[in-house]
Amino acid sequence: MRTTAIVYSVLVLAAAGAPAAAQGTASRRTPVVQVVERVAPAVVNISAESIVREVDPFFGGLFGSRTRRAQSLGSGLIVDANGVVLTNAHVIEGASRILVVLGDGRELEADVLGSDRDADLAVLKVAARGLPAVPLGRSAGLLMGETVIAIGNPFGLSNTVTTGVLSARGRTVPSESSGVRFSDFLQTDASINPGNSGGPLVNLAGEVIGVNTAIIQGASGIGFAIPADRAQRVVDELLRFGELQPIWSGLLLETVDSELARRNELAATRGALVVRVYAGSPAARAGVREGDLLVAVDGRPVAAREDVSTAFHSVAPGTPVRLEARRASQTVRLVVAAERPPRGLGLEVLASAVGLRVAHGRDGLVVERVERRSKAERAGLEAGDRVLAANGQRLADLEQLGREALRAVDRGSLFLVVGRGRYAYNLNLPL
After folding, report:
1. Residue pair 148/166 in contact by the 8 Å Cβ criterion
2. Residue 98's closest CA among 119, 116, 76?
3. Which helix (H) or strand (E) holds 131?
4. pLDDT in the model for residue 226
5. Predicted pLDDT of residue 269
6. CB-CB contact of 109 with 90 (8 Å)
7. Intervals of CATH 2.40.10.120 along the chain
8. How far apart are CA 304 and CA 105, in angstroms?
9. Is the CATH number of domain 28-58+66-244 3.30.750.24?
């Protein structure tokens, strides 16, 4: 009788345990787990190999330099099933060979379709079809404090997942490696490190709201991502043109701090001061004036000039952007629609703002004329100097120099590498 009771009890417990285990698995499939199951197959590991030339540590340059192979690792997201992969530009910068490792272990060599260092985004292409893909979603309408998930595939390992909340929007952050100031970033406390840089930031609806980027190291509890809306425009242009096309507003701006505000007797200590408005530009036609203090763009406060340029670069050319400006004691509201710059405009800006005219020569681009009392003359430039690079990019032709000159308007200065004789000089020319 007692034995029968014990057996009966065991059978009852076993019968009760089976559905309980199944129920436990279902209860553990939280919204986070479901999002990871949906998005993770499209997340890849990216291995970028480059050749680094370095001086012999014992003999210096006596016996020449030596080379070694260097490797950077990061993550990426397949955004198109036909092999289009999105990652950070800094992950593949300077790479001579790029490998994309899929979730199933396949290693595929990738070509760069386009890369833009200012946006820190690059688009790659691998020779494969039918891949698991997750397109970019929207970053408009995000809720502060909502749960976000950062997914990466670092070091060839399986997916890593970190969770947190959306801490802030519209952050302006400097890159430690390049010195470029990035604006309009999403901030999260989900851990983002070099391994999952380039992977997706996802909300609980499974939408890719941003592209993770590890631009600041050692910042505990702070991660950043490029908003999906901005990333989508960059991706579209990289796929179409191979680079991010310049946008021309005709505004030369300077970030306002307390010292600049005191010196110019400005009404506010934050914003972007209009230093110059180019004649005939979209800003000039919209009524923007030199001396205006821009304090808001599309309803968001302006903390630095990058906030304004990012607003123009986040929308299609011709899209109206609303500016709020302080003009003396008045508040002025203006609408500027930036546009594609006409051909040759960059070289005209270079001549008018810097006093430098460049032409094709036997050895590449050569300084043709330096205007008297110009910024170029004060920097020591002379006719016959060779213009080798602009903003860190080796120059192939005048058109590329013009594009870099227009990019420099957004930054406020143009960085040139100029050759004279056997030497090369780095010059930073304010615009």
Report:
1. yes
2. 76
3. none
4. 92
5. 86
6. no
7. 28-58+66-244
8. 44
9. no
Q: Return the closest-CA partner of residue 253 out of 279, 275, 281.
A: 275
For residue 261, give the H/E element and its range.
helix 258-263
Q: Does domain 251-337 have CATH number 3.10.580.10?
A: no
Which parts of the chain sit beneath pLDDT 70?
1-24, 50-72, 154-158, 174-181, 215-221
Any catalytic annotation for residue 96? no
Q: State how far the Cα of 84 lies from the Cα of 74, in Å rounded to an integer.
A: 16
Active site residue 258: no
At 339 the pLDDT is 95
Angle 101-102-107 from CA coordinates, rounded to 5°: 45
Catalytic residue among 75, 191, 197, 249: 197
Task: Specify the amino acid at residue 380.
Answer: G
Q: Which helix (H) or strand (E) holds 258?
A: helix 258-263
CATH assignment of 345-430, given 2.30.42.10, 3.40.50.1360, 3.40.50.2300, 3.90.550.10?
A: 2.30.42.10
CATH 2.30.42.10 maps onto the chain at 251-337, 345-430
Indicate if the alpha-carbon torsion angle 316, 237, 175, 431 is positive or negative: negative
* Sign of the four-CA dihedral 115, 312, 247, 240: positive
Do 67 and 52 form a contact (C-beta atoms < 8 A)?
yes
Report whether 309 contacts 412 (CB < 8 A). no
Q: Taking Cα atoms as reference points, which of 127, 138, 120 lies closest to residue 76?
A: 120
Q: Is 197 a catalytic residue?
A: yes
Catalytic residue among 116, 118, 120, 229: 120
Q: For residue 121, which of 112, 130, 129, 132 has the smallest C-alpha distance?
A: 112
> How far is it, in rounded angstroms, from Cα 71 to Cα 60?
24
Q: Which residues pair with 55 in a beta bridge?
A: 65
Q: What is the DSSP string of 280-306?
A: TSHHHHHT--TT-EEEEETTEE--SHH
Q: Contact at 8 Å (CB) between 153 and 159?
A: yes
Distances (CA, A) of 19 to 8, 11, 26, 27: 18, 14, 11, 12
- Residue from 90, 139, 313, 374 carrying the catalytic annotation: 90
Q: What is the pLDDT of residues 288-310, one digit of tens each?
A: 999 999 999 999 899 888 889 88
Task: Give the chain's length.
Answer: 431
pLDDT value at position 144? 92
